[in-house]
Amino acid sequence: MNGQPxxxxxxxxxxxxxxxxxxxxAAFALGGLLLFVTACGGGGGEGGDSGxxxxxxxxxxxxxxxxxxxxxxxxxxxxxxxxxxGALKITASKGKLTTVDVKDSKGNAVDGKIAAGGTAWEPxxxxxxxxxxxxxxxxxxSEGRVSAKxxxxxxxxxxxxxxxxxxxxxxSTVGVGMPVSLNFTRGITDPEAVERAIKVTAVPSxxxxxxxxGNDRLDFRPEKYWAAGTKVTVELNLDGVEGRPGVYGEQxxxxxxxxxxSMVSTVDAKAKTMKVVKDxxxxxxxxxxxxxxxxxxxxxxxxxxxxxxxxxxxxxxxxFGGEYDIKDVPHAMRLSTSGTFIHGNYWASAxxxxxANVSHGCVGLxxxxxxxxxxxxxxxxxxxxxxxDVVIVKNSDDxxxxxxxxxxxxxxxxxxxTK
Length: 419
Fold this sequence. Notes:
Blueprint (H helix, E strand, L loop, with lengths): L8 H33 L14 E2 L3 E2 L7 E5 L4 E4 L6 E5 L2 E9 L7 E3 L5 E4 L8 E9 L5 E10 L4 E3 L1 E4 L5 E2 L5 E5 L6 H6 L1 E6 L5 E5 L3 E5 L9 E7 L4 E3 L2 E3 L2 E8 L3 E6 L4 E6 L2 E9 L10 E4 L2 E9 L10 E10 L6 E5 L17 E4 L10 H8 L5 E5 L19 H4 L2
Parallel strand pairs: 4-10, 11-20, 13-21, 22-30, 28-29
Antiparallel strand pairs: 1-2, 3-5, 5-8, 6-9, 7-8, 9-10, 12-14, 14-17, 15-18, 16-17, 18-21, 19-20, 22-23, 23-24, 24-29, 25-30, 26-27, 27-28
GO molecular function: acyltransferase activity; peptidoglycan L,D-transpeptidase activity
Pathway: Glycan biosynthesis; Cell wall biogenesis; peptidoglycan biosynthesis
InterPro entries: Big_10, FHA_dom, LD-transpeptidase, LD_TPept_cat_dom, Transpep_catalytic_dom
């Protein structure tokens, strides 16, 4: 027996302690598990919540659910040869548009606005041709959840195009009578679309309206002559405008010009004189010769559109056959498309001016051959004049000049001009 283990109850008791330890560990583990479940699963007691705010809340609404708003962009993503007008439309269903950004490949934004109710957006004007655009649109649903749509498309490459030849030139200083005049290289059958693409503004501001002469010319002017010092800006947004079926504009240009001092000269064909008024003050009275009784000068307000120190005048070009062909007419300034000029005359005697009307419809001022004498009335008037100055003819035995014969829209009443 001396210290040896006995095989009776003592040994059995030793074996019985292990199950006891296992049951204690299991109870501890079960208690820990229950504690863990209680901590993570929620007690479900009155006023309890999900603990981390990401579960169900307020009657089962799930805060991280996807937005119900759906943004649709037409044309589809990646579309080619898209029409420049009427094709781009962005809409939202089950929500409202909050942001719409449309830009061309240079980063220039396309103006547009979200319609009332936030369900649609359309561009304010046509798109440019042969241009890639990107669209980024965002909408929110009734719960304020956001949905976005991004896409790209490319507009058509026009096969047939037109431009507008414009006057006056960019950066020029012109007289108070100068209109903005555009002559298009193709006849326009959608004048409203073309006119919407042209914006003419002035500082100081004044109402400016356009008027079409036929289907290929559009002029803009205020009701009365421009004020001296006015700054005029012409924005030609013609790129992509369908001016006639299948024919698109290709200009995107801004033209700026300034109105200089005011100079308006009035020719009295009966009195055979011309009074020159500069900035409201008469600065000179000049003797002239106007159209002869058989070839009278038009009445009306005429704008100087060209200046030539020397030019050739051939009667055959304006319907007078071989009656004259003068190769060196000095100080000539055009007043009409049909051939009316105010110019120097060296072939008539000095006594003619102020006493007889002998021209073929032009207004003649005394001059010398070659126009070298700066003291001659014609040389003085030429030096004083700029493109856009006004020459008014009155008391001639002729009709008023047509408003489209030169830059002479001032001969049309404002009420008719704005129709």
